[in-house]
Amino acid sequence: MTGKPTIFTKVLVLIALLLTPVLFLYIYTNQVSVDVVREEMESSSLNRLSFFLQQFDTTVEQLAMFPVILNSDPYLREFVDRRSDKPYDKLKEQTRLMQKISLQSVSAAWTNDLSVYLPKDQLVISSNIFKSYDPADIDKFAPLKTWTYDGTVRGDARTPGARFTRQIVDPLGATDPAAIQAMIQVSFPVANISAMLDQVKTGGKGDPFLYRNGFSPIGSATMSEGSVQAIVSMLDGQSLQESGHFVAMVAGRQVAVYYVKSRQLDWYLVDYVPVDSILAPIRKTNLLFYATLGLLLGMSFLAAYLLYRNVQKPIGKLLNGVRLLKKGDLSARIRYRPNNEFDFLIDRFNEMAEQIQDLVQRVYAEKIRLHEATLKQLQAQINPHFLYNSLFFIINTAMLEDTRSVVAMAQNLAEYYRYTTRMENRTAALDEEMKLVANYLTIHNLRLGRLRCELDVPESMRELPIPRLLLQPIVENAIVHGIENKPGEGVIRISGSVSEGLCRIVVDDNGLGMTDEAIAGMEHQLALPQEAASGFGMWNVHQRLRYVFGEGAGLKLSHSPLGGLRVTLTWGRDSEHGAAIDRG
Fold it and tell me: Which residues, at least 6 apart from 31, have a Cβ–Cβ distance to it below 8 Å?
């Protein structure tokens, strides 16, 4: 028996064997934790800087738009282009323009000076009443196209110190003072930036400042000059990206330096955070871990067994059930009873799975009904606007005893309404839509007597299924808004083509047409939701195409070679949406 290991010895050896990998694991995880904290600190600091810089750039961008807005102001254009020679009128116009500039200036969040230089009159009109005209300003700032740091001391500045300026000239691109009619300039003092940095610094551990190589840094009122200058000297020797970070030693302390580039000023927002103060709590937890490790290891064996029996196995069953639900098997149920608290979770899981299965089925059915109701609503919104005119035509023609015209109008009107009031089918062949358009054009031609229709749709397209009442609103728009208001013969050309899996129907007319601005405005209206749209004609067709054929389908407006408007209907020939709509 001598020399045989006792049970106690075996337990000690086992504990020692367990302790060694646990220690190594803790050392490794501790290092991973430190790395994660560093990464999170880097991410948090960069995100904070980016968020602040986004607000900063937004304010600067707002100021940059002031000269552009003011340049298109009618008061300024009238003052520059058609200024009165009468002293009283001239003074009145100048006063009105100064009020306009002042109101524009005070609308910004930052203190700024908004000025209009008139070189030919040796005159400057500014929101800063102390500002005087200086020809050197034209020579200095006119060639500059972006924000410029101006560190010169100006006696007419409301806020002392350096400033950022930006300007535009009229005409654009002119640099010769003799050719410049006006230079509109906006400037703001760096005191605005310092005040904003003061707010960012409040409650934080950093000391943010703006930096650019060759210029003095711009910081808060409580900026640490020594630390900032040490960091600036390091930044001067580096090739900076759009954003980044590095670790440096400043005043005997290790600090993490972060920077993000401003897209407006082309300066960098820089901040630095002491690394030791962030990692100190992690080091304290090391001591606590070593103190509790022995106790935890002594209880690990019993805990592992109980954990497996009472927790791990039930959790495995639950995870397996969740995986089945994730794969789409909504009939998955757990048939395991651990006889502990997990019985309640398993019962609730089974009930939840049953409810989810029932809910998914109901939601799917409701979605189908909603989709069908939406399509029917859109289809029902297309109503002929010419019914009264057609009936009055029949009455007047009957009074003139023109039986042939009465019969023709009645027959075409009956065919038209027989087709448009059929709501049982949501789709029809393209050939049927072409026949409806022919009826519609015949009705209008009986009234107007000057319409000509040209059809060039290939036979291969005529049997393609499309939503019903798709072409008639386009033709109606061409007649009502284009041809009726233009004297002479009206021509409507309808052509079709299929290429690269896309079907296209092009409707051209020789009506009045539309300007580029009007076309852009109408295309904007097509994308609006129903409650915001101003009409239901072409908007309805566009929305129905998108409902049936999905993204990429819809209307496109452009100028027609006939002189009027071109409307192009586009949809995918093999669209899954088109097949799905027929199934409900």
Answer: none
